[in-house]
Amino acid sequence: MDKMWAGRFSKETDSGVNAFNSSISFDGRMYRNDIAGSIAHATMLGEAGIISKEDSAAIIKGLQSILADIEIGRLDLDMNAEDIHMFIEAELTKRLGDVGKRLHTSRSRNDQVAVDIRLYLRTEIEQIKNLLKKLITVLCDTAEKHSDTIMPGYTHLQRAQPITFGHHLMAYAQMFLRDIGRLDDTNKRMNVCPLGSGALAGTTYPIDRMLTAELLGFSEPMANSLDGVSDRDFCIELASAISTIMMHLSRFSEEIILWCSWEFKFIELDDAFATGSSIMPQKKNPDVAELVRGKAARVFGDNITLLAMMKGLPLAYNKDMQEDKEAIFDAIDNVKLCISTFTPMLETMTVNKQNMRNAAARGFINATDCADYLVKKGMPFRDAYKITGGLVAECIEKNTTLEELPLECYKAKTDLFDNGVYEAINLDNCVKCRTSYGGPAPESVLAQVKYVRERL
Fold first, then answer.
1. For range 236-249, the mean pLDDT
2. What superfamily in CATH does domain 15-105 come from?
3. Which residues in the chain are classed under CATH 1.20.200.10?
4. Distance (Å, rounded) from C-alpha 324 to C-alpha 313?
5. Which listed site, 54, 121, 314, 424, has its alpha carbon 20 to 30 Å from 249?
6. pTM for the complete prediction?
């Protein structure tokens, strides 16, 4: 295929350089977006009188036929082409002759690729959001079923205070809800149109940038042509938002891995979402969760790639920026893969309520409630804290629990104790009384579920 830029050169490009320079193997996925951008550009050229209305219509029809042929498999992408933009323009010229050559009037590949990737990422953001919404819905459904399932809450991975499994799940629902907000914010800043920026300095043709922005669904054209072709903030911002999603998925995966171990046994994964060992027949491994945890590192690397690629580039376009696509595409592909696999794994897991309850019964996680019992009778909290700490030490020495400790042991510390202390430190009451906004009480968990569903 002849190079579109071959006029300046006296010899063919080295075959190795051709392969090194080519990007169609990864930017080929943007063929729909490239054609959409070109149709908008051709429409504007005709409306502005830069080319004839007849040529504009022929170009649009030709581009539509190319799209249809690619979609049905009649036209394969040429992997020898430099990129998707050159492939489509060459195919259009093959079909229309000189008319096809008019498409690139007042346009550069620099603003062409800038608009293509924004169009592509805009669609991908919506797909990621939809996957997150499905995941959040599963979290809400499961939290509703387990709004009163008592489990230990942890700090430092040590049993801390009693909560409910529904409360724990809704913490992740809030994280993923914020992730949707980050994607929306990214999309808002990304949704401006670079088309018409030319190579870097705009054009002398009387183009209508407002029209192309409107045709492509952008909020407005980019205000500076240099920025229009050299900006990749939106890729970095999206990669950062995706990295945060992956961080949340990785934290959740770590807990899934812990919970399904014999040491916890809070949950059991469905057989369809676990694997076995080649040598140990008893094993049931949480490979899905482990892979999600591992892929988080890969996505973080994509984010760093984009930052490192851009940090030393002078204005405007530099070939380095071709590397933006593989990094952001990899991040997108992996976050979509992880969410779409993680969601059914979560939906099909079995929750071992009794094991959660048994774990909550040990570890003195009701000690704060014991101290609060004294506070409500007028004792300063720090004094109540010290007395309760002494009771815990006594329980450890006697190998018993606060619930089993005789009343006389309590009264030996202070006469403020009476039989009511046992009601105060009962696990069910400990949870039910935590009715503060956002807390683990069953009605609070259900309120959180309602709130999240409304936000969705």
1. 98
2. Fumarase/aspartase (N-terminal domain) (1.10.275.10)
3. 110-146+159-358
4. 13
5. 121
6. 0.92
Choose, from 52, 219, 261, 277, the residue flagged as catalytic.
Answer: 277
- The answer to whether 402 touches 373, Cβ cutoff 8 Å, is no
**pLDDT digits 0-9 by tens, 357-416:** 999 988 898 999 999 999 999 999 999 999 999 999 999 999 999 999 999 999 999 999
Q: Report the alpha-carbon distance of residue 61 to residue 67 in Å, rounded.
A: 10
Q: At 161, which helix (H) or strand (E)? A: strand 158-164
Give the integer Cα–Cα distance in Å for 103 and 100: 6
Class of domain 110-146+159-358: mainly alpha
Q: Is the pLDDT of residue 11 over 80?
A: no
Alpha carbon of 357 to those of 130, 252, 266, 394, 415: distances in Å? Answer: 34, 20, 9, 23, 31
CB neighbours (10 Å) of residue 37?
A: 28
Q: What is the three-class DSSP state of 329?
A: helix
For 120-138, write each residue's pLDDT tens digit. 999 999 999 999 999 999 9
Written as six digits, the tokens of 340 are 């779409």
Q: What are the two backbone dihedrals, phi and then psi, of residue 158, each rounded to the nearest 5 degrees?
A: -110, 140
pLDDT at 169: 98
Parts of the chain belonging to CATH 1.10.275.10: 15-105
Active-site choice (10, 15, 156, 278): 156
Q: What is the pLDDT of residue 54?
A: 98
**Packing angle between helix 31-47 and helix 84-96, nearest 10 degrees?**
50
Terminal CA-CA length for the chain: 49
**Residue 28, token pair as written in the block:** 């080929």
**Domain 360-455 in CATH: superfamily?**
Fumarase/aspartase (C-terminal domain) (1.10.40.30)
Can you give the length of the chain in residues?
456
Total Cβ atoms within 10 A of residue 301: 14
230 is catalytic: no
Question: pLDDT tens for residues 431-449?
Answer: 999 999 999 999 999 999 9
Mean pLDDT of the chain: 94
pLDDT reading at 16 higher than 80? no
Asked if the model's pLDDT at residue 15 lies above 70, the reply is no
Cα–Cα distance measured from residue 287 to residue 257, given in angstroms and rounded to the nearest whole number: 9
What average pLDDT does this structure show over 72-90? 95
Please give the sequence-ordered ranges of beta strands (E in DSSP) within 299-394, or none if there are none: 350-351
- Non-local (6+) Cβ contacts of 59 within 8 A are 38, 42, 51, 92, 96, 99, 100, 102, 103
Distance between CA atoms of residues 57 and 103, nearest Å: 11
**Phi, psi (deg, nearest 5) at residue 385:** -60, -45
Alpha-carbon 372 to chain mean position: 40
